[in-house]
Structures
1.
Amino acid sequence: MAGHSKWANIKRQKAVVDAKKGKTFTQISRAIIVAARSGIPDPAGNFQLRTAIEKAKAAGIPNDNIERAIAKGAGTFDDGSNLEEIRYEGYGPAGVAILVEALTDNRNRTAADLRAAFSKNGGNLGEMGCVSWMFAQKGVCVVDDVSNEEELLEASLDGGAESYEMTDENTAEVLTNATQLESLNQELKAKGFDVSDAQLRWIPSNNVEVNDPDQARSLLKLIDTLESLDDVQNVTANFEMTDELMTASMV
């Protein structure tokens, strides 16, 4: 299976722990700010904002923090920061392509942090465009507690899905065109499926198979280091790795 899908599934299971460390609070709060800034500051008419708020509540972020983040995005609350979205690109061990989506108020600081993370873990931060051509942005719905794949397939097709993948025994990721994400999310929920997450994600057109234990360990450490940075929102990589090697490399 695609290694990053498995890795993403593991990271979701760690979300509660990460939230206690404050990382998820910062990450989701910034996502709310950007969503409110890019559309109307009303979740009823802004799917991106509505999804970010749902994630915030699931992570236990207080309502006051959510409202303050919406106000920052709407421009009615000024704390002196000016967040901008930047995408960074590079290569990890074994030639794995890595996309990093960041929200920052200081480009120099973020670039320096990312460059250090890459260089210390067997990778290289590259120029814009060096790996993005290998990825396409898709809408992804994560569906939990899947008991009937045929019913999931039928509902997914009705919602405009392009494909789906079982990331573990009962969890699926359903992919669609980026513009169809809201429609797919609504259709799956209307059919009674438990959609735990709906997001835009960069999907690789091809994957690099990682078999060497040392490279696997360095790659997963690099991704973990990148994801731990406050300015980083999402990390996507085009690797495949067996579950056994991934588990062994995370010890």
2.
Amino acid sequence: MYAIVRTGGKQYQVAAGSRLRVEKLAGEVGDTVELSEVLLVADGNEVKVGRPVVEGARVTARIVEQDKAKKVLVFKKKRRKGYRLKKGHRQPYTALEIKEIL
């Protein structure tokens, strides 16, 4: 059994017991979150597609980690002008462990 959920403007395929990184969600490590924007649920031969979401379907997950991704360096330069700019960015994320698909 698997489902397609939407969170943080992206879509993810999830199954019970799987782990995934999503855009930062509010909550502490160990908290339970509910993903209610379920776009598709597949259980064996039966597939339910939502328009846009499947009514009554939800996915429960546990927050495993709240952290930042690896640093991405941004370097800008304009030739012959002496303009150089170096910045770094670390995107925050939330790691989830999927408990069940209801």
